[in-house]
Write a structure and sequence with these properties.
The chain is mainly α and about 400 residues long. Helix content is about 70%, strand content about 5%. Helix 4 runs antiparallel to helix 10, helix 5 packs antiparallel against helix 13 and helix 10 runs antiparallel to helix 13. The longest helix has 27 residues. The protein starts with a helix and ends in a 22-residue tail after the last helix.
């Protein structure tokens, strides 16, 4: 096992290599208008320091894993203190009550800009919960999830543009349309898994985006659809501030409903079959579980949740175009699931809040926010590869002594 001096030397070598590889991009800044070259030598030191720190902690973590002395958050003093506080009578109810009160008061004590950002985070929480069913519970990699998101959004936009359908009627219709599309996608990919499944779902996602870009009569092509109406309250339309608060409250209600649905599905017979399929699909099938039906149910429910989020997204922004549903959106939603913790509802919520809110509040560091963001992701993956809040495997215990009759 290497000591700290050896780890530091190896990290310094990695830092030098990182500086050489990024030198033309980070240090040299070319102004083509004035034909001037600016040498940003401070960037060389910044890149070297970041690579040095990341390499040091990465190598030390690998050495600890090889020696069997890895860091475990749940066994730390902070984790034990947290569980001891939360286990006291009344503490959990007080925390939940305070959280609910704060969530309801947010749109009334913050600016419309802050409320709009938090609403976007809530939409991505819904998307993360939907993808978490496929990735976290079913163990299937879906890289085209933004396509189902787009189907829901375009369903509301097209129905309203052509038939004047309102938000509340389009909300279930968007979920149904995405569920049908999920069934269509699920049929040819039922026998695939791993990288093959990821490639096929990625292809379906790109096919959907290209179709919306080239279908001028139906989706207005790359120009998109504008003037999508915001939701009303029994026919009453709100102003800008009122509609921002109203959409926020709708998003909160949808998040609560979908969390309840996911929780019920996870603890049902179907949910346990998904987990069994994730662990070992061959053993799962040998126990009598129909993998075809389980996978189809996965795709349909997950797609329906994405469709609902798409309708809410279209109503919030009042404008959509194909660039809102690219493969990068799918990757962002997947990162939310992986960062928060696959299979963990609380992890998905925390991951969405971090990935959506953090870049917005780092706009003051416009040039460096992605560097900071990437550094935090790498550090987290080194120390918490299972996500920030890892899913806890449930243990079912049968009470009572067996009787012989």
């Amino acid at each position: 096992m290497m000591n700290r001096v050896e780890i530091l030397k190896k990290s310094a070598i990695n830092a030098v290599i990182g500086i050489l590889l990024t030198f033309p991009i980070t240090v040299i800044k070319v102004n083509t208008i004035d034909q001037e070259i600016t040498w940003r030598w401070y960037m060389m030191g910044l890149v070297g320091a970041v690579v040095l720190i990341i390499s040091f902690f990465w190598i030390r973590q690998q050495e600890r894993q090889n020696s069997g002395s890895t860091f475990k958050f749940n066994e730390s003093k902070l984790g034990l203190k947290y569980h001891s506080i939360m286990s006291k009578p009344g503490v959990t109810k007080s925390v939940l009550g305070s959280a609910v009160l704060l969530i309801v008061l947010i749109p009334f004590i913050t600016t419309p800009y802050t409320t709009s950002i938090i609403t976007s985070a809530l939409i991505y929480i819904i998307l993360g919960l939907g993808l978490n069913i496929v990735v976290g519970l079913g163990g299937l990699l879906n890289l085209g999830y933004a396509a189902f998101f787009g189907v829901g959004a375009y369903t509301y936009a097209i129905l309203n543009m052509n038939f004047g359908v309102g938000f509340w009627l389009a909300l279930p219709l968007g979920g149904i349309a995405s569920a049908l599309f999920g069934a269509i996608v699920g049929l040819p990919v039922l026998r695939l898994k791993g990288d093959y499944l990821a490639i096929v779902t990625l292809g379906f996602g790109e096919m959907t985006r290209i179709f919306t870009e080239n279908s001028d009569k139906l989706t207005r092509g790359a120009s998109g659809i504008a003037n999508i109406p915001k939701p009303t309250f029994f026919g009453h339309a709100f102003g800008y501030f009122g509609s921002t608060r109203y959409i926020y409250l709708i998003a909160v209600a949808l998040v609560i409903i979908i969390i309840f649905i996911v929780w019920r599905m996870e603890n049902s017979r179907v949910g346990r079959s998904w987990v069994a399929m994730r662990e070992d699909d061959i053993a799962c099938e040998s126990m009598g579980i129909d993998l075809t039906q389980s996978k189809m149910t996965l795709f349909i429910i997950s797609s329906a949740i994405a469709g609902v989020a798409g309708v809410l997204f279209a109503a919030k922004n009042t404008f959509i175009n194909p660039q809102s549903f690219t493969v990068w959106e799918s990757i962002m939603i997947l990162c939310i699931v992986v960062l928060g913790g696959k299979g963990s509802v609380r992890g998905v919520i925390l991951g969405a809040l971090i990935l959506i809110l953090l870049p917005e509040y780092l706009r003051a560091f416009q040039q460096y926010r992605m560097l900071i963001f990437g550094f935090l992701l790498i550090v987290m993956m080194v120390f918490r590869p299972g996500g920030i809040i890892q899913n806890v495997r449930k243990i079912y215990k049968i009470e009572g002594e067996p009787t012989n009759e």
